[in-house]
Amino acid sequence: MGLFTRRNQNVNVQDGAAVATLAVDPALAALTGDYVIDPAHSSIGFTVRHAMVTNVRGAFSEHEGTLHLDGADPARSTASIDVKIASVDTGIADRDGHLRSGDFFDAETFPLMTFRSTEARQLGGDAYRITGELTIKDVTRPLSIDLEFNGSATDPYGNERVGFEGSTEILRSDWGLTWNAALEAGGVMVSDKVKLTFDISAIKQA
């Protein structure tokens, strides 16, 4: 079921010609509103190739954000996310400390990574693309994230939830994250390409 575009087709007659119109599905229209991301049931992660041969995975355990969903007009839907850089976790304390340092994120000077959407559109079915501006350190660049709408539900506590998951790829050097080390056999220690992953559960606000 598409979040924004599942509609019923009606036919009107204007000046003797049949004109198709689209009526918004009431079930989808009911999802319209403001949502807060539930960090306890959401994750923002990343994968980067290490030493040219394997992948290192990590996540940011502290983040917050809001969504506005418009069930009738996806272009009016928005997203805003703030990620606490110091919460980076790859499972290795020394590596996490290096990521927080000036070689990478410089978390003390730039404590947040932020995303602010500028456009949302449907790709087909339950697939969507949200485009916006990602800021890391003092660099802001455009970013598009492909998402899948996983559905909506009311949890046992009466909260109305929606769920999305998706991913995108960036070149970390575009945001000034250029630290690296050469390998004796050729190549570098950390790839420039980074895959970002999102698994979002958001609660509708009254």
What does this protein look like?
With 206 residues, the chain is mainly β. The chain is 6% helix and 57% strand. The chain has an 8-stranded antiparallel β-barrel. A two-stranded antiparallel ribbon has the order 1-2. The longest helix has 8 residues, at 93-100. The two termini are 24 Å apart. The model is unreliable at 1-14 and 17-22 (pLDDT under 50).
Q: In which order are the strands of the major sheet placed?
A: 3-6-7-9-10-11-12-13
How many strand units? 13
Low-confidence stretches: 1-14, 17-22
Task: Profile the largest sheet.
Answer: 8 strands, antiparallel, barrel
Write the layout of secondary structure elements.
Elements: E1 7-14, E2 17-24, H1 26-29, E3 33-37, E4 43-50, E5 54-60, E6 63-69, E7 78-84, E8 88-89, H2 93-100, E9 112-124, E10 127-136, E11 139-154, E12 160-171, E13 190-204
Antiparallel strand pairs: 1-2, 3-6, 3-13, 4-5, 4-13, 5-8, 6-7, 7-9, 9-10, 10-11, 11-12, 12-13
